[in-house]
Amino acid sequence: MFRNRDDAAQQLAARLASRAALKDPLVLAIPRGGVVIGAVLARALGAELDVVLARKLRAPLQPELALGAIGEDGEMYLTEFHQDVSGATDTYLAAEREHQVAEIEQRRQRFRAVRPPAEVAGRSVIVTDDGIATGATMVAALHVIRARGPHELIVAVPVAPPETVAMLARHCDEVECVLVPDFLGGISGFYQDFQQVDDAEALRLLRELNPSPEVGHTNR
Q1: How many domains does the chain have?
Q2: At what angle do helices 33-45 and 5-17 cross, to 10 degrees?
Q3: pTM for the full model?
Q4: Is residue 21 part of a domain?
Q5: Contacts of 142 (CB under 8 A, 6+ apart)
Q6: What is the CATH number of the domain that holds 19?
Q7: Residue segments in the chain with a per-residue pLDDT below the cut of 50
Q8: Is position 219 within any domain?
Q9: Pairing of strands 62-71, 76-78
């Protein structure tokens, strides 16, 4: 059990600090809760902080259940079980994809007004969120990042179930996870304080870690 996201991130940072040296480290956080985790990791590791935009594809009448996810490059990843979910027709998926693409574009405009995309090629990239259930959103994010040529790709999260950790390991070079419970239930159940993080807080953290960026150019 974590006290809050800061506590979870500090425990995660301690694990990452004990590994081999990172090459020009970059932390990429999935908004919004992941940005809180990412800010702590970036400070602890002396890394740059940015976001990676991916959205889950919601199941019909079950918005918390991910049928898959879509990355900011438009690539769609679907879970193995999506065809077994009632109502998850091709028509439904096309409409949900269109909706989430629009959401990603809105977030892209907000976040890129604060800072331009960080350079990924040749760097140790740590991708984080405040917890992972199915892993669909994270896989979509990893596909986007892998295409940009990182030196190594590390997933670092406070909590995820064992089957998701094993699945993610096939899409990255390393997975670092503090808690790996046999039964997840919900991510919030592993936090004493799991208040919702809004865009304003995520943008504030990005500004703090990247003061006065020159929009249109990388910070490097």
Answers
A1: 1
A2: 40
A3: 0.87
A4: yes
A5: 127, 153, 155, 168, 171, 172
A6: 3.40.50.2020
A7: 213-220
A8: no
A9: antiparallel
